[in-house]
Structures are given as structure tokens and as C-alpha cells.
Amino acid sequence: MQSKIHKRIGALFLSLALCLGLLPTAALAANAAAVEDIWDGTSDTNWYNDNETEFTLTTAEELAGLAALVNKGNTFENKTVKLGGNINLSGSEWTSIGSGGQGWKGTFDGQNYQINNLKTRKTDTDPGHGLFYYITSGTVENLSVVDADIESSSGNFNMGILADWTNGSVTIRNCHTSGTIHNKTGNKLLGGVIGSAKAGAQIIGCSSDAEIISDHYDDGDGYSDCDTVGGIVGQWENATDAALISDCWFGGSISCGFNDSGVGGILGANFDFYENQPGVDIQNCLVATREIRCAEPGNITWIGAVVNGQVTNCIWPDTPPDGVTLDEETYPDNKGNYLAVVKLVIDWTTNTASADPTFDQSSCGTAVSDFTSADVLAGLQTNAGAGVDWVAGINHPTFAWDKWHISADYTAVDAAIEKANALNENDYRDFSAVKAAIGAVVRGKNITEQDEVDAMAQDIEDAIAALELKPTPRPSRPSSPSYGVSAPATDNGTVSVSPKNASAGTTVTVTVQPDSGYVLGDLRVTDKDGDDVKLTDQGNGKYTFTMPAGGAVVSADFVKETKDNPFTDVSSGAYYYDAVLWAAENGVTDGVTATLFAPDAPCTRAQIVTFLWRAAGSPEPVGTSAFTDVPASAYYAKAVAWAVENGITTGTSETTFSPDAPCTRGQSMTFLYRARKGAANASTGFTDVPAGAYYAAPVAWAVENGVTNGTGETTFSPDVPCTRAEIVTFLYRAK
User: Fold this and answer.
1) Span 482-560: which CATH code?
2) CATH fold group of domain 3-382
3) pTM passes above 0.85
4) Is residue 37 scored above 70 in pLDDT?
């Protein structure tokens, strides 16, 4: 990153910071609802008693009441507010806690619950974009703000999903954010967790996979607008010795339309506006995405730009995003990549900031290509701060506290299925209960649902224990020298004998014909005493034996044809086993590696249109898509163009497709319905599929055609991310 670039960045940052000094302090107003409810925007303060010091909130109305109390001047200093369950804010726009002119000073403990679907739309100078607007002291911890939808065209500078800004001795610990935060005006301090931090705040064990967007904007005043954008924190100014970002990761995306901006995967920039102040320390952080872009790519750092702070033990990508090239003539020091860290030098005589040419960024950590490797996770855990536990999540590193991203243990389920598969169902009076218990297994549950997964395993075990063996056939001794040959019916194939009656010593022919997809497992002939009779294989499914005195019984079982399965994480008893092998054999997908399919990983929008396109024979699209987030070189570029041309999708906006966003079950059914040009003749019967929803007809079509039965008798779960196993199963059933 050249010094001329830093001068432009620095000058704009400094002017932006001077404006920030004019901002009034603020507080918040809130709104939330239980996951199964739609919040009507009302608030409830009846839970509050000024003589109490600890409160537990369980509804959207109560959370909104907290916001109302804070925004009227109650800082909750020396008081604790806890969540007692997930809260869904769908249905109404949120008013931030602290937007009424008073900052939060208490302890907010989410107890590892989620606040879902927070939505704000701000215009003019309205404060308050995130859950909190202003935190002046205290603690916010153990909380996920999920699927946020924040958009701003206001002149207010600070913008973050968890909080717009903090100022003072603030602790943000064990918090996660996701969704979209979108600035439409320029001149913003924009962060996936915190927009702007000041003084001695500490941000520990936090993460975000949010989509952060800042559109180019020209207000016609003759000045170039700019942003400071960070995956965790947008800008940190006037830090103290306590200022810290530790054990945090960013796995979302950043898109900034301004040339005069500072963009960082963890921190946009840290500035010393009062001269010779300590800098923020960044320790043991991970940037697990390459989707960080800016109109001026030379202004991007993987981790952040800092003045006096230190960056240690961090991890960042070893290559730039696809389609991004930093030529050595313009950026001779970058070596074709974004810099990991830039050490800024402030010149107050010229109000500029430039890069320290002597700074060695290799002291800051390591560049890697695989963010989820065991070595990366081991290194993060080795250097973790007290109380932080890094573990492997569904598709990215996460933390032990973040139970929503940690898969449930299906070991007992898989063992029970294997035990059932080892049995010959023809040996039992009724095997249907075992089949039903296996069919009821639902994959993709997280650790909070472990009891449900354990119950699935127990149901299979109970069904096996209840099996009753058939009595051993004992043919009666015929009074004549001609004896009968019996061949009881069996599943998955046919068995015939000729002749059906024969005298002792006669040759009897047995013909077996497996159904499609099955092979003969075991063929046995027993005499009247139950002893085996020798069989001779004549080829082409024909076998012969010599008729014993007293009669004979022919028994056979057929087993599924064993296919070459390259994936170690796809067991033969899995509901998606045939679908995955079909997808691999037909070029729909090769898995995430040569030996891993990742069946429980969420399927992205890019992956699902690619699967559909390949299943259709990979037809050449007429042209290319117009989406700015779909590079021409991306593996999914032709698939997206084909999907748009065939009316399968129109993207998430006029200019964006959001290829890395998880594809929900509702979206997946809609894409498949449009690709198959389906038509529905009935309603779904699911309580969570409204008649007017865009996915209502696709879901009805899918049920009618045996593509899916939903996630329960009355639920489809349209907003739950669709897993890779689910989508290939849907494709397989609809082929």
C-alpha cells in the first residue's frame, strides 16, 4: 500500500472523525418477539421494578420495553438483563437501545440465545441502526443477533449490527452477528459487530458472517465521501491501554464503493486523534473469507490499519478474492495481495496518514489457504485468551458458546441404523417399525437439539428390540413320494422354482431376479429338518439342487447394490446416500474434497444454481449475468446466468445475487419448482407456509411429487438454511 493512498485515506478519516466529535451521546429503544410469533411493535415494561437488580426477558414486547426504559433515561447501571429464550423481531421496525439520548451502562447477558430478524430503516439524521445505539460502559455478552436487515440513508455516522458505537470501559464478549447491513449515503463508520469504538472497550470471542455493503454516494458538496468499514469494528479512535480485539473472526463479505476509505476484515482503522494515545491491540483473530472489496483495493487490509497498537497471532487469506489484481506498478509493496496490517503514521501538520515503510507485517500472524484446517484451529486455541474455546463448526471455525453453529452428535443414530441394516427383515414378523424409525431421522440438528437426536437413536433401538422372529418353517411329511418346494415371497426381488413338486432325487431349478438397484444377498435351501441342501450355480440367476425326501424350502434375500462411494462422511444408511452417489456419478457435484461431501453444511445460493445447472446438462447461457458480486471467473458464473435467463432467480437485488448467502428451504423449493416448470394443485397443509408466500406453490408442488415431506407433520421450515444433503436429495427425487 503506497503512501499516496494513505494520504487520501488519512485525510478523509481525520475529517470524518472531527465530525464525530459533534455527535450527541445517545441511548436505545427495542422490539423483539418469540421465534414462533410476529411482533406487532408494542412494548411491555411491566416486568421492570426499580428495586430489583436482575431481570429476565422472554418476549419481543419485553425487549422493546427495555429499549423504551433506556431511551427515557434509565441506564441500567449496576443492573443485569438476561434473555430467557430466542426472540424474533419479525413484523416491525426496531428502535435501537440508547437512541433516545442515554447510553447503556448495565450488563446484558443473552445466555447464548438469539435475537432474530432485527430490521431498521433510517433516514435524515435518525440515530440507531443496530440492537444498541450507544454503549457507554458495562457489558454485552453471550448473544447472537441473527439475520439482521439494516439499511441507512441517514447522516448519522455510526452503524453496526450489535451496536452503533461504544465509548468507555465496555466489554463485548461472546457475541455473533449475521444478516445484511447496508449504508447508502457515505461518511459512515460501519462494522459487522460495532460501528465505532472509543477508549478502552474490549471485544472478546466475537464473530460475524454478515454482508456489509456501503454504496458509492455523491452529495454534490464538492468533497469526496468516505467510509471506514470493518468486519468486526468499523473505526476505533483514541484508544486507551485497555483497548482490545481478541479471539474474533469474520467470515462474511464487505463491499465498499468509495475510493477514499479504509476497509479491514477485523478493523477498518484505528486513529489517534489526540496524539500519542495508545492503540488498540488485535490478538488471535481470523479472517475466514476472501470476499472483501473496495473501489480502491489498495485501501483494504485483511486485518486492519492501526496507529500505536499491536497485532499478534492473527490469520488471514493468502490470496486476494477472485478477479482482484493489485498491479506492482501502482502497489509495489503489496505483491499482488491485500496487506494484512498497515501501521499508520499520523502527520498533524498536514492532517494526513501514511503507511510506516519499516513495519514488518509478518510479525502479525500467518496467511493461510484453508480457514478450517486442524492446524489453524489448533493454533487459535493455543493462543486463545482466558475463557475462549475455538471449535470446528458446520462450515467455519466458531466458539464453544455458539451452540447454534455446532452440530449435534449423530454417532448413536448412525450406530443404530447400522445395527438395523445388518438384520434380515425377512426373518421377522413385522419390520415396518424399524423402517419407520429410520425414516424419521432428521439430519442437520445443532447441539441444542441433542435430546431430539438421542431420541431418534432410541426409537430405532426400541423398534429393533421389539422385533419378533418368524417361526422356522417345518414342512409336513407328505404321504406320497412327491414332495413340495416352497419359496416364500421376499422384498426387492423374485424367486421361482421348477418343478414345485418333485420326488426325492429329482433336480429342481431355482430362478432369482433382483429388482433394479439390488443384488442377491443370500440364497438357501433347507430340508424338512432345517438342514442346508447343496446348491449349484448354473449362471444367469439359475441354481439347481437335488430334491430331498420330505420337501424343501427356498429362502432368499436381496440387498442394495453396493456403489463406489468416495465420501467418508456419507454412510450407507443415510437418507441421502443414493442421492449423493447419483449427484457424484452425474457430475452434479464432486463434494467439497475428494473424500468429503459435507452433507450437513448449508448449501449456498451459488451452489444450488450450479447443481440445478449441472443437472440440466450444463447448457451454455446466452450471455453473462449483470450481478456485481458474480465475477466472470467464478465457478458459478454460467450457472447464475442460465438461472436468470430461465426465470429461476432474479437475484437478491437488481445488482446482487449474494452467492455465498445460505439458501433457505423455501428458496431451494422455489428454484427447483421454476427449473422443473412445476404446477401445484393443492395447498401444502404446513402451518409455517402462508398461502401468499412466494414459496407456497413450490412447496405444494414438491409435496405432491414426493420431493419432500417437510420437517414435521405440520411444518416445512421455509426459512431454515438448506443443507447440501437436502438439496441433492430434492434434485434426485425430482429428476
Assistant:
1) 2.60.40
2) Pectate Lyase C-like (2.160.20)
3) no
4) no
